[in-house]
């Protein structure tokens, strides 16, 4: 298995590339998701990114049940409290207990506030963080963190946190590195690990920009795939990457990331090509208005 393991500020170890089980607008149990996760487990993936909002916890539980020989200590499970459930109901512990019941786990390794855009009359960010600290104290999660937090949100939590967030999971790929530089820099200053979701946007969800052709060119140069190039770019920037694929060959290649290294020059080439183009795939919430253009 070629995924590096890195150490968070808390001392916890985390595989640097994780497998996302997020879907949009899911209504019923999805056997294809169960199969996708089972294939990922078979292909050696051990870090899974779940969330209350995805509704895919039963599929995760069923997939894990098919591999009883994988010890819990080998798995790394992230989940997130949903802003319109745990946050709106002002009860993060109940949300996490429901997640644990549905995934049939005793604890998650990392629990995140899914985003800072809370509904009216719900918790404040500071109140939410206190509740996050309480669920960690109870052992329901090993570590706590945040997701989609901008510098202004990070500062609010940082000011009052007794237990600091260890991860900020944000959309991050070459087309957002410039737009997210302030968030990346602040997280670096506070030793909060950046986890990048949608790392393959330039070759997958939005193939129109300049990094698509460049990834292909570099894939030929290094004898790997363009997916491996973009994930290696994340690793060499020191980010955790949260990716996903149902495809067997891609699952195999995209978890085989330690056998080659991009030159510093090629990392810079991707940075520079990415900086000429802006695309945010998950342009929802405050992101829509705040980051309409950085060029
Ligand atoms: N915190 C948040 O707010 C948030 C928001 C969004 C996502 N996430 C997390 O991040 C995870 C990953 O997000 P994502 O799906 O956008 O990540 P991604 O890895 O950038 O994109 C995955 C998509 O790209 C395709 N793909 C995979 N490898 C490819 C390749 N080599 N070439 C072309 N296309 C390829 C996949 O299709 P195939 O299956 O056909 O390969 C899939 O549709 C989610 O599942 C979720 O866990 C978190």
TrEMBL record:
A GO MF term: oxidoreductase activity, acting on NAD(P)H as acceptor
A Pfam family of this chain: Aldo_ket_red
Keywords of the record: NADP, Oxidoreductase
Domain of life, per lineage: Eukaryota
SUPFAM superfamilies membership: NAD(P)-linked oxidoreductase (SSF51430)
InterPro entries with a match to the protein in the record: AKR, AKR3C2/3, Aldo/ket_reductase_CS, NAD(P)_OxRdtase_dom_sf, NADP_OxRdtase_dom
Residues annotated as catalytic: 54 (proton donor)
PANTHER family: 2,5-DIKETO-D-GLUCONIC ACID REDUCTASE (PTHR43827), NADP-DEPENDENT OXIDOREDUCTASE DOMAIN-CONTAINING PROTEIN (PTHR43827:SF3)
Protein name per its UniProtKB record: Aldo/keto reductase
Organism of derivation: Sistotremastrum niveocremeum HHB9708
